[in-house]
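Margin note from the TA: students keep mixing up input and output lines. Inputs are the sequences; the output is the structure of the whole complex. Example:
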Amino acid sequence: MATKLPRKPASKPRLAVFKFTSCDGCQLSLLDCEDELLAIAGAVDIAYFPEATRSTLRGRYDLVLVEGSITTPEEQARVLDVRRRARFLVTLGACATAGGIQALRNFADVAEFSAAVYASPEHLRTLATSTAIAAHVPVDFELRGCPISKAQLLEVVSAFLIGRRPVVPPHSVCMECKAAGNVCVTVAQARPCLGPVTHAGCGALCPSYDRGCYGCFGPKETPNAAALSERLLQQGLQAQELLRLYRSFNADAPAFRDESLRIEAGLRNHTGDPS
Amino acid sequence: MNPPADADVSPAVLTVDGFQCLIDELQRRGYRVIGPTVADGAIVYDDLASVDALPRGVGDAQDAGRYRLTRRDDEALFGYAVGPHSWKRFLNPPRLKLWSSRREGDGVRVEPAPEPRQPLAFIGVRGCELRAIAIQDRVFLGGRYVDRPYDVRRRGAFIVAVSCGTAGGTCFCTSMGSGPRAQGDFDLALTEIVDAGEHHFVVEVGSDAGREIMAQLPSRDATSADCRQAERIVAATAASMGRSLPAEGVRELLLDNLDHPRWDQVAERCLSCANCTMVCPTCFCSSVEDSSDLASEETARERRWDSCFTTDFAYLHGGSVRATTRARYRQWMTHKLATWIDQFGSSGCVGCGRCITWCPVGIDITEEVRAIAAAPARTGGSDHADGHAQD
């Protein structure tokens, strides 16, 4: 069977990668696409990607990948400029999508942290919070994970190039776990696992190695964290440990944040702590 | 059931060594032999090289949201209930490539996905699982449209069934009429007898293929005492089953109670994680996904297991038609126990208990039915044809 296809356009879309507060692990996933790297370079003009190339093309970009969260006044201003230059803006990973591990500051006093870590904290210009890119500018697509999945990144770029919706389902990790044939670590071993409330995409990596999911892809669609918490407590997990389970790479993602605040309030009431 | 053509269908007795000969004979005939084995703290289905891979002397303790392997005080090879896997993962694989295409010059060439050549042999298919396979046969093969991927795997599959000698903690096959005795479409059906130093299987032949294979194995004719012992074992299993569903009236009960407050209560516990549908041996829903490569030269279409518990699955133009967990849980349970009957002529539930055991929060479908039955909002008299309340 042979059907006539339209010719591909002559000019290639311009790709840029921008970094805010982050560890660089997500943009490294792009360089980690070893087998596909030449295909990426063949499909797009890499116009701005300081981690990969010194050459920079200024102007507007067709596809902008943004890593990192917003934690400084300088970043607040810069993200507006990045958005203005971007036709299609995709955030990469837990930092850009939910504020990252550094969003733990949102539950504490950042001035106290600064004083504890730096000899002269007065030189710092930092915000009280670490927030997702979407809290500052409109975002076209969010890719989850700490770090992101290389396969999902390739899927988003491939989908963008052909003009289709990327296949990045927002259901639970459990569905990937069951498809892989894994035995549930919570049911068979009473291990705490955030899989039932966590966004798929990792291919159920941790449960495949006999560990509980620690939620690095953030909340799934329609998460019911309270019901999962109740079960994990029944299985013997301490409330303090449960709190830490939600307070990690996606601590400020709404479903995990609300649940951790609820657990924290319960702990305060239980101990009679007035704070 | 597809009885053998010849009259000689009297049961036989096979030893454990004879059982190894069965595996050898199936492999010699080119089958991919799959059966229960221990992995990651549970009994799963995987390729079997020999009888040594079977979970010898292993049992299980199951309850809502809980599964543990146990040590039996005998050397039984099938002394446990069903685990997290079901045969659907081999007949209707979780991910399945349907076709791929490739740009060639000005055109595009479409290639169908390669089909498996090796026939499947399933060892240790329980009564509830025979029923589940029959239900999926109806879904995939029984209507106007035959599902080819299922058909090529199902056709020619050799089924060695086993009647259950132990009821699992979440089993309710007796009330569903699907077990514990293996009945239906099998090639061979075994009842394991481990008693007073004896260890053998009473084998019932269910097909010509089964008879042919049995003829190659070292066996003796079963005596009436052997058969009575096998019957006693199955009867004892049936009597020790801890859970049940009402045999009659569940369809009417659920469809008359679509706005029952119990749906709100179960939705508070339900994680909408879809584990129940993944482990259910009859749930068959899938989604189709397209992929393309960076150069836009190659594309492929894959089918993967999906679930009525995801919002995407009920996404129509403009949004998901089942926005709440209440609506999704109710859809799953009313389809399984009620509208499945309208659609396919039987209940979609076989009483295997997997959805109860493998629900991370331990939601029990039998308990949910009991709760609605205990305080029904309405009883009878409604027009079921338009009785579907909307969320």
